[in-house]
Amino acid sequence: MDFPPHDDAPPLASPLAGVVAAFMPRLAEFAFEPGLLAAIDQHAAAVCDTLSSEPLEAFEALAALEALEAPIPMQRTVGREELTDYVLGFNDVLAEKGWEEPVGYDFATLRLTAICWLVREQDLLAF
Q: Is a pLDDT exceeding 60 seen at residue 12?
């Protein structure tokens, strides 16, 4: 399942641009569905955890912060290249299953909306 970028996108636009074009409007629904933000946050965290190359170190760092009782939250970030590879693989699986975007939300829609949110929050389409 490919999400083509908008017509005004550069010819070699990232697959992330296609996901953003298709799912950015869904971010506006946060205002109307309170539980949606929590679901998107969980999916974004799962994507970040999946792409994290050192998950054990992150947990060790969090434990050290808790031991110091420091209220500093751990920032989850992803790189453009890693997230692009993830999107390509995820889209391949959706295409194999014949997935079509539903009116509401399913696992794939939540995951793709979370990817869109990560791209926006971390400014991954900026050059």
A: no
Count the alpha carbons within 13 Å of 21 in the hemisphere toward its beta carbon. Answer: 14
Answer whether 17's CB lies under 8 Å from 6's CB.
yes
- Structure tokens belonging to residue 50: 């999946």
What is the 8-class DSSP label of residue 32? T
Angle ∠(87,76,107) on CA atoms, nearest 5: 40
pLDDT tens profile 45-73: 999 988 885 554 545 555 555 555 544 44
Tell me the torsion sign for CA atoms 31, 105, 9, 124. positive
- The alpha-helical segments, DSSP class H, found in 1-127 are 15-27, 34-51, 55-67, 80-97, 107-121
Question: Residue 42 is which amino acid?
Answer: Q
| 82 half-sphere exposure, CB direction, 13 A CA radius | 11
Rounded distance, CA 53 to CA 65, Å? 20
Rg (CA), the chain: 16
